[in-house]
Design goal:
By secondary structure, the chain is α+β, with helices and mostly antiparallel strands. The chain is built from 4 helices and 8 strands; from the N terminus they run H-E-E-H-H-E-E-E-E-E-E-H. Helix content is about 35%, strand content about 35%.
């Protein structure tokens, strides 16, 4: 390469790096906004006798599409938070008296029972998830879907109540963390087809 062409090429390399870094930065920003955690997550009313975990966000899909994602529980729930550790082992039966059941070779468990199904606006289950399953608690999990703009306002509220002897305030933060992570996976699954 002639000397003058090599100088031009060498001067262009820092410019190319800057353009590449700029493009990567914008792509990462766009990806972080697209896959951002729910707009609002909160743990409230925490005490030894119970707590409320709530998550809410606006999904840019119609309620029917969000409902389809929601009721495909095994596609978005993290298998790390299951007995089997297997993707697809937890299945939701979306009908009153249906179950959120997990089956694996040598065992099974009911995580929750379905109380109310009103597609595509309300799914209500009752059951203690994780460490709550072995405690004498009442736990109600509501998913509400409301049309908003061209999308859906998706809200998940998990209300847990029991005896103060259960010391539910010590379990509130870890249960909220798992439920909030599940909500984020649901939102990602609804938006992208991947949790």
């Amino acid at each position: 390469m002639p000397h003058s062409h090599r100088l031009v090429a060498e001067r262009a390399i820092p410019h190319r790096r800057w353009v590449l870094l700029w493009m990567v930065g914008w792509m990462l920003l766009a990806l972080s906004l697209f896959l951002a955690p729910p707009a609002q997550a909160r743990l409230s009313q925490t005490g030894p006798d119970g707590f409320v975990s709530a998550n809410e966000t606006l999904v840019s899909l119609p309620p029917a599409a969000v409902w389809t994602a929601l009721t495909n529980w095994s596609a978005w729930w993290d298998p790390a938070h299951s007995y089997s550790g297997s993707k697809g082992a937890i299945v939701l039966e979306p009908a009153a008296s249906g179950r959120l059941i997990e089956r694996w070779p040598g065992g099974s468990t009911v995580h929750a029972t379905v109380l109310t199904v009103m597609p595509p606006s309300l799914l209500r289950l009752v059951g203690g998830f994780g460490p709550l399953q072995s405690l004498p608690v009442n736990a109600v999990l509501d998913f509400s879907l409301k049309p908003e703009g061209g999308g859906t306002r998706l809200t998940m509220v998990y209300r847990v109540a029991g005896s103060p002897a259960s010391k539910l305030d010590t379990l509130a933060a870890p249960v909220d963390a798992v439920m909030s992570a599940g909500f984020a996976r649901l939102v990602n699954f609804a938006n992208t087809g991947k949790p």
